[in-house]
Design goal:
2 domains; five-stranded mixed sheet; Peroxisomal Thiolase, Chain A, domain 1; single chain; elongated; 5 strands; alpha/beta; 17% strand
């Protein structure tokens, strides 16, 4: 098993550009995606995985970045302070940057990582749970290496990202298989065990 876990503090700039083949994609990234690009880049360290390597990624709500949502909501309120569908369409939607959609969709981190590393094999986004991520990986259509990852942006802006390249046999041996922990906890723990 090969593991990498990264943590970025709220004020840290995430230096993703040096890990990208196509730097123009950077404008579409939120903090979770940027941290994921670095953590996976360091895990693979120049290794090109076979394109059909299964890749499963766990994510959750982005608690820190608001993407201008308070302005969108206030522009949607009528004179009585009630939400108006009409005002949402007329005033709010035009204020939403087209780039925002790439930052709020939960599958975008997996998509950008797959594009960057040319991974086309079986892949899926799993929501939050460590046991769900591991259970999902156990259904992968391979007996070889499987790539799993997780990311989390906390309310204070702290961002964590972790990845592992492992086999089903290695996943079965982990205590996280039946835990209630969040998926990011797997990678933090595995990284600390290696220190």
């Amino acid at each position: 098993m090969k593991v990498n876990w990264q943590r970025f503090e709220p004020d840290d700039l995430i230096p993703v550009s040096s890990y990208l083949k196509n730097r123009k994609l950077r404008k579409y990234f939120n903090r979770e995606t940027a941290a994921g690009i670095i953590a996976l880049g360091e895990l693979l360290n120049g290794i090109q995985l076979p394109a059909n390597t299964p890749f499963y990624y766990a994510t959750g709500l982005v608690e820190f970045e608001e993407y201008g949502l308070p302005k969108i909501v206030s522009a949607s309120l009528d004179d009585n302070g009630h939400f108006s569908d009409r005002l949402f369409v007329e005033r709010s939607i035009p204020r939403i940057s087209p780039l925002t959609s790439f930052k709020v969709l939960q599958n975008m981190t997996l998509a950008f990582l797959s594009i960057e590393h040319e991974l086309t094999g079986d892949n899926a986004v799993v929501y939050v749970s460590a046991s769900s991520l591991l259970q999902y990986m156990l259904t992968a259509p391979t007996e070889g290496d499987i790539l799993i990852g997780a990311g989390k942006v906390f309310r204070d802006g702290r961002t964590e990202s972790g990845f592992a390249l492992l086999t089903k046999e290695e996943a079965i041996q982990t205590p996280f298989l039946n835990s209630n922990d969040k998926a990011i906890d797997i990678f933090r723990q595995w990284a600390l065990e290696k220190v």
